[in-house]
Amino acid sequence: MLRHISSVLDIQKGAEKWTVLAQVVHKGHNQLTREVPPRRIMRFLLTDTEGTKVSVVTYEQHIKIFNKFLQPYQRYYVSNAIVVPADPTYRVGSYECSWILNYKILIENYAEPVPPMLPCIFELTNFSDLHKYADSDNLCNIRGFVIHAFPVKQADPDCTSRDIIIVNEEKKLMLMTLWNEFEHDEGIKIADMISTAPLIIALRVKVTTFNTLSFTTRYSSGILISPPLPDDLSFKQWFTLNKEEIQNLLNAKTYSDANCLLPPPNEEDIKAISTFQASFPIQKAAWVQGTVKLAYGFTKYWTTACVNCHKIVNADIDWIIHCPLCKQQSEVELRARIPIIITDPSSSIHCIISGEDAEKMIEFTPLQLKQAQEDGFGIDTELNDALKKYTVVCFLKSYETLFQGQLQRKNTVIKAYIAAELSHHPLPLALPENTQVSSALGSSSARYPEKSSKDQMFTPTTKLVLEEIAGASSYKEGQTSTTSGAKRSLDFPEYLPADTLPEHATKTAEQFAKEHAKSYNPPGNMKDSPAKKAKAKED
Question: DSSP alpha helices (H): ranges in 25-179?
Answer without folding.
Answer: 63-69
